[in-house]
Amino acid sequence: MSVIQKIRDKYAVWIIVLICLAIVSFLLQDVFFGRSGMSQSNVVGKVNGEELTIADYQRRIEFTTDQMRQRMPGQTFDEEAQQYFREEAWNGFLRENIMAKQYEALGIVVTDAELVDAYSVNNPHPMVRQQFSNRETGAYDPSLLQQFNQAARQDPNMKAQILAFEQSIVEYQQNLKYYSLINKGIYYPKWLAKQQQEDAAKNANIGYVQVPYATIADSTIKPTDSELNKFIADNKAMFEVPEGRKIEYVSFDVIPTAADSAAAFAEIQKLKAEMDTTPDVTQFVKLNSEYNQYDGYVSRSAIQVPNKDSIIDLPKGASFGPYIDGNMLVYAKMLDRKNMADTVKIRQVLIFAQQGSDSIAKRQADSVEAVVRGGGDIAAIASAISQDPAAKENGGEVTLAPHTDVPAELAEVKTFAFEGATGAVKTVKLPIGYAVVKITEQKNIGPALKIAYLGKRVDASSASSNDMLTAANEFAAANTNRTAFDKTVQEKGLNKRIAENIQPMDFVLPGLGSSREIVSWAYSAGKNEVSRVFSLEDRFVIAVLTSIREKGTAPLDEVRPTVEAEVRKLKKAEQIIAKLGTPANLDAAAKATNQPVLTAEGVNFSSSYAPALNFEPRVIGAAFNKAWGTNKVSAPIQGQAGVFVIQVNNYTTADVPALDYAQQSQAFEGGIQQLIQQQLFQSVLKKNSSVKDNRAEFYRGN
């Protein structure tokens, strides 16, 4: 799973909180340091007249990045993740200012009395409860707040943190009041509930004639550009697009030559000879191998490497290789093998030691160990007193595999889990306290292997890179316009690729990786202009700008296939409707179009889908047209898959639950409230605000 997906899945709520804190921190910086009189040239964006300077924007990005580092320690954030943080920082600025206008217009404020009440002992604000809770009991502890306030009197930075925290409470409460006002305006009337109940209780059994659009060949329908452009003009909402660029490019990839491979082979042979004579293979591999490997035992079934079958049966001390794994030459050496479980379950009780109170924590851990050894239920104990946040839900249970990565401070816990026996109990000293651990299950005990992988990358030499650069420069010099570019690509059989929907603030392009320089060039070049040679990490790229799309309605060239399909369907419908005329009955419609009369049972007005019809909301709606009833055939109906003529044979009553207005009202209003929470800002407030984004001007690339 990518870093971005991890952030979205695991830290979505944290991101919102961090944005709020970032907003507050910038307000506080103005209080402590004042504004620096930034000139217009330093403004990266505006919303409703409020400016964002490049300095403030950079601080927002740094704040978000630092907070994510704290949430995901040890994680490396690549260019794609940094791009995500830049967008979060920008969106935080927009949200701050757009919502501030909403609060002001509606008179939404948070009084000093409300802020004081947030710290009340009996009913503290959720943010206060979370920030100042006792680590052992989880309960709000006002003494922790008092200690922090006392320290803040001597430390301006801590005072700033308190002010920022209180401002975040204000933001939280303003947002809560805003959406409470909106929610109060949502109402589900009883007449609507009754009508929907009646609709759901009525089915129609119909006969119909369908003339599929596929009965008319696409080749016979040739829409003109004027017809296509009229369709776009009549349906602008369908084709609303942001600003964008499209490029086509060729890439001269720097790949190792035979000489480069031979050099790598000679190097790994030399390293392998040294590895065979060293007394500490593990340390040697750590220092010399370029292969990303796990230093520990792995069950046979969990090993996933090329030539696995040859490697797992090696005797102790033997080697296999060199073999190819991606861009690596690798030797595998069997260091050790032993029997161990491939899965272990433990339960643990974590006891944190407060500063200067390690002996107290040790006595508590010893007491817990004694109770567990005496038959006490460690799951119940973990749920009651463990300071692991997840323990209350899972009773302190942890599942481990031999190759499971754990923090260094928990290595002894893992060692005990695999080397101890089922039912064994042990207290492990941790940097933050103690863990009382019990092994509850060891599954699939069998061979586990410890293998050292000595790897050497096969990299392209500087000579190989220079050869590719020369080839790229020759291509660029000989093809300075799009016509020549396309002709040479075709004549030489080069692989021309496409990157489209390029946004002004993109830093990463699919297939190219980090490529900000190309994006900046695309927004300064003219249409059909050919670029210079761009030097990326392992390739040289020459691009041609093939499309410039301004914000607004998409041009025909970009949406032609979609528009042609829709217009072609409309023109086919016109032909079919003209052929049908005004049929007296279904048999007449069938005869006029050479189509059979079909039936559909149980068509329900409350659904846009029927099994026999698929998704045909117009046809389903027509089945309940009172003007036609059961005596008249319908007029031709332009549907999704063809033109229909229908006649209702009869109506029947469906079994539906009795009306529970309170339950339906709660479900309806709750659904609307959730929809508003998700879409109001992006689809309404932001869209109706005056937003100017100049950020791309400040990120031109090298």
Automatic annotation (TrEMBL):
Question: What membrane topology is annotated for this entry?
Answer: Single-pass type II membrane protein
So which domain of life are we looking at? Bacteria
Cross-referenced SUPFAM superfamilies: FKBP-like, Triger factor/SurA peptide-binding domain-like
- Cite the InterPro entries for this sequence: PPIase_dom_sf, PPIase_PpiC, PpiD_chaperone, Trigger_fact/SurA_dom_sf
Q: Quick one: where is this thing mainly located?
A: membrane
Q: Where is the signal peptide?
A: none
Q: Where is the PpiC domain?
A: 341-441
Annotated keywords = Cell inner membrane, Cell membrane, Chaperone, Isomerase, Membrane, Rotamase, Transmembrane, Transmembrane helix
Q: Does the keyword Cell inner membrane apply?
A: yes
Task: Name its cellular compartments.
Answer: Cell inner membrane
What are the TM regions of this chain, as residue ranges?
12-33
Keyword Lyase assigned to the entry: answer is: no
The record's annotation in Pfam families points to: Rotamase_3 (PF13616), SurA_N_2 (PF13623)
Family statement? Belongs to the PpiD chaperone family.
Recorded protein name is Periplasmic chaperone PpiD
Q: Which organism is it from?
A: Chitinophaga pollutisoli
Taxonomically, what lineage is the organism? Answer: Bacteria, Pseudomonadati, Bacteroidota, Chitinophagia, Chitinophagales
